[in-house]
Write a structure and sequence with these properties.
Among the domains are: 78 residues, Immunoglobulin-like; 88 residues; 105 residues, Ferric Hydroxamate Uptake Protein, Chain A, domain 1 (Beta Complex), CATH 2.170.130. It has 818 residues and is mainly beta. Helix 1 packs antiparallel against helix 2. Strand 18 and strand 19 form a beta hairpin. The strands form 14 sheets. A five-stranded mixed sheet has the order 2-8-7-4-5, with no helix packed on it. The protein has a five-stranded mixed sheet with strand order 26-48-47-28-45. The chain has nine helices and 48 strands. GO terms for molecular function: endopeptidase inhibitor activity; siderophore uptake transmembrane transporter activity. Its main location: membrane.
């Protein structure tokens, strides 16, 4: 299993090479590389992407999805985190409507959830994250927009408020306008829904002289050149369309400072960086660092003796995606920053080849899927495929988010990126220019340089989860901290009647945690805390009972732009199909209720026992427990060959004949199937014990060498598969039903090449096929098959996926059904 630290080893080796290259530059550059490397080893990152079968649903439908988990530094598939949390957030109501926990294996987490029939129509946000990602700002959670339409919905978009003042921000390239240095000022204009809007305008100085005009280039973004003068203030007058002019102040001019300008477009081979400054000092040097996702790619020193300098970096030094350029002054303070995007063409090509281009209704469709690199070499990849009826669910957002745009762009940027897919669509010849403008207007703040340079690493509050967790707090009745550790007993009752029993201890403040649990669907959990001789003065809280926090700060705009006739057809056909599905379920329930089954009740297997019949069994009841303090007090004198010496908490036990050359061998103590020590057995309340089984000699051989001294197996009432935990009402005890991993259902796709006893029914599926785990082999090939529906339509295929090394790709194709 790879760990975050082992994944950073490659980056550390690369950093060592850079250190050698800059050994001649003693001091800050080398120390900066070392400190950033150390910081990232302690603060690794994760990324998540989720593909859904589509973007528009009706209440009652199932959302089919697959989560991809990546190491945030090198983009390899993340096999460390095993739990992916998925929330369906209602921004209007500011609440989480659905919360699911998907089990991730090898970096992939398929699953689904069903939309309630009563879910209001509107725009929802699908939010996905791991526990470890909660150590960072929620800006880096994965989000995408889902639209839910009701049968009464129309295709008309809600009217957008007109005449309202647009939100326009001005951002000097590098971060600051410096007196006497000509630079570029980027801007971004959005409406009340957060969508980019086209604007134009001009800039005036304090004397009301017009200096330059400007107009947005793409989604409200653009830039203009300006050489500010010390003592002047600048104002931009902006209009949308033919509307009135609105004034906005530009950032203040710094009398002294540095400027950073980047040419990332004119050369295929190099990135050129221009550094200017007006510092009075002519001694020393500034430091320029290029880093991507915490990996240092290049550094250079810029002498202060030159007011203007140029640094050229070969594109071979960069990795695919976003790179952050930071300029530090002679005092080692960050003074300028600029993001650039470097396209190295490191994406897989996904081909989708049907066995024919035109099909009949209910005909079998065979697809061959191929994955290759940019050079055409086959590469194995893990993919997810959705086959959609294009008539019922049109492709409403061709520039929407994909695994490529998410992994390489949006996962490294805070805030909402409108139409992220546009920048990766090769049909847009100007996409590089517009992507560069986006880099000038979007911030990146996953870490703070001051923390890196000071060696201050924020604490890791949320651990990497190898399974489900139970965490919470034990407090006194007055809600004060316990002041010392508290012993805890956990019982997890699964739906299949099996039980897990384990013990633990809180820290001195009462915080506790049980990790790496594995259960599906809903389980009943009981937690009991004991401090001292009783638990009456303790209360227990469980973090998993708290509602997920809603972190969406802005309601995203609704991208639904389907023609009225298309929307009506989608609603009509989908409602028909849902009605048929409901009727089939109702019919099956009626048939099941009419069946009488006569059979002997199967004996529930007690999973706590790995042995057969015990040599002796002592059942605990009021007769033999009266006046007794510990388990050993109860069994004392009741089993031949079992010798108990002492009493109370100091009692010892020996099974006769359990000796070797070293002397007597102590028995193995087992509590509800789990080996424990004698102290744990002595601390049990005898009122919680159901029975004790004693195994001697050959009977204990199943425990191997551990059972050489015999076995004393203690079975508690709560650990029994027949025990109802919900009837517990003891002080210091918490009982709750908790969701486990969401059970993964197989997508139902009818087969029309086999005979069926069921009467034929209309087939107008919106999603014809969903395959979340398509794996191409070493030759880069995989095949899938499904059947077309009753609709004469175009079927659209959306395929997304990645290699183990983290090279993403998308594939699109269509067929006709006539």
């Amino acid at each position: 299993m790879r760990s975050f630290h082992s994944l950073l080893t490659v980056g550390a080796l690369a950093l060592t090479t850079l250190l050698i290259a800059f050994r001649a530059d003693e001091g800050f550059p080398a120390r900066l590389i070392e400190q950033l490397s150390a910081y990232m080893r302690q603060r690794p990152t994760e990324k998540v992407y989720v593909q859904t079968d589509r973007d528009v649903y009706l209440p009652g439908e199932t959302v089919w999805l697959k989560g991809y988990l990546f190491n945030g530094i090198n983009h390899q598939t993340d096999s460390i985190s095993r739990v992916l949390y998925v929330d369906l957030v209602d921004p209007a109501a500011r609440k989480v409507r659905i919360h699911a926990q998907l089990q991730a294996t090898g970096g992939y987490a398929p699953g689904q959830f069903t939309l309630p029939d009563t879910l209001p129509d509107g725009t929802y946000v699908l939010q996905a994250y791991t526990s470890f990602m909660r150590n960072y700002a929620t800006d880096y959670f994965f989000t995408k927009t889902l639209t839910v339409v009701s049968p009464a919905a129309t295709a008309a978009r809600p009217a957008t408020a007109t005449g309202s003042r647009p939100d326009v921000q001005f951002m000097p390239e590098g971060g600051t306008m410096v007196a006497g240095i000509q630079g570029r000022v980027a801007f971004k204009a959005v409406d009340a829904q957060g969508r980019g809007i086209s604007v134009s305008g001009f800039v005036v100085d304090t004397n009301k002289d017009t200096l330059t005009g400007f107009a947005s280039q793409h989604l409200g973004m653009g830039f203009f050149a300006l050489q500010p003068v010390a003592g002047q203030t600048y104002t931009a007058f902006v209009r949308t369309g033919d509307g009135p002019l609105t004034s906005y102040p530009l950032p203040a001019v710094s009398a002294e400072g540095a400027s950073l300008q980047v040419d990332n477009l004119s050369s295929r081979d190099k990135v050129r960086i221009f550094v200017q400054h007006n510092f009075a000092s002519q001694t020393g040097a500034m430091t320029l660092i290029a880093q991507s996702r915490g990996m240092v790619l290049q550094t250079a020193q810029v002498p202060l003796a030159r007011k203007s300098s140029s640094v050229q970096i070969s594109r071979t030094q960069f990795v695919e995606g976003i790179t952050q350029l930071t300029l530090f002054d002679a005092e080692n303070r960050p003074v300028c920053e600029r993001l650039i995007f470097v396209d190295r063409n490191e994406q897989i090509r996904i081909g989708i080849t049907p066995n024919k281009t035109t099909y009949k209704k209910r005909e079998r469709v065979d697809l061959t899927i191929t994955t290759t690199d940019a050079a055409g070499k086959p590469v194995p990849a893990n993919l997810s495929l959705a086959a959609l009826d294009n008539q019922l669910t049109p492709d409403i957002d061709s520039a929407g988010q994909t695994i490529v745009s998410s992994l390489l762009l949006t996962s490294d940027l805070a805030g909402t990126i409108e139409q992220p897919g546009y920048y990766f669509d090769t049909t847009h010849i100007d996409r590089a220019n517009k992507l560069d403008v986006l880099m000038m207007t979007q911030g990146w703040r996953r870490f703070v340089w001051a923390d890196v340079l000071s060696g201050k690493v924020p604490p890791t509050t949320y651990p990497v989860e190898g399974g489900l967790s139970l965490t919470g707090q034990v407090r006194r009745l007055n809600q004060k901290e316990t002041g010392s550790p508290v012993k805890l007993t956990f019982v997890v009752a699964h739906r299949d009647s099996t039980r897990e029993f384990f013990t633990g201890e809180s820290d001195a403040t009462g915080r506790y945690g049980a990790y790496d649990l594995n259960y599906v669907d809903t389980a009943t959990v009981m937690i009991q805390a004991v401090k001292g001789k009783a638990n009456r003065d303790l209360t227990i809280s469980l973090d998993q009972l708290l509602s997920p926090t809603v972190t969406i700060t802005k309601v995203p705009y609704n991208p639904l732009e389907i023609r009225r006739d298309e929307l009506a057809e989608f609603i009509r056909r989908t409602n028909e199909y849902l009605a048929i599905e409901r009727q089939i379920r109702n019919n099956r329930e009626v048939l099941l209720k009419a069946v009488t089954v006569r059979a002997k009740r199967a004996e529930v297997v007690d999973s706590r026992k790995i042995y057969g019949r015990a040599d002796a069994t002592i059942k605990f009841d009021q007769t033999n427990t009266a006046g007794r303090l510990t388990v050993l007090d109860v069994i004392q004198g009741r089993v031949a060959g079992v010798q108990v010496t002492g009493s109370g908490f100091s009692a010892q036990v020996q099974i006769r004949g359990a000796v070797n050359f070293s002397g007597a061998v102590a028995p193995l103590f087992v509590l509800d199937g789990m080996p424990v020590d004698l102290q744990t057995i002595n601390s049990l309340s005898i009122q919680d014990v159901d029975q004790v089984d004693v195994l001697k000699g050959a009977s204990a051989a199943i425990y191997g060498s551990q059972g050489a001294g015999g076995v004393i197996a203690v079975l508690t009432k709560r650990g029994s598969p027949n025990y109802d935990l919900t009837k517990e009402a003891a002080p210091g005890t918490l009982i709750a039903k908790l969701p486990g991993y969401t059970p993964v259902r197989e997508f139902y796709a009818p087969r029309y090449d086999v005979a069926s006893n069921e009467p034929p029914r209309p087939d107008f599926r919106t999603t014809l096929f969903w395959a979340p785990m398509v794996q191409t082999d070493a030759t880069g090939k995989a095949t899938v098959s499904f059947f077309s529906s009753d609709n004469k339509t175009t079927v659209r295929f959306n395929v997304e996926g990645t290699t183990v090394e983290g090279m993403p790709g998308i594939g699109r194709s269509r067929i006709r059904v006539e």
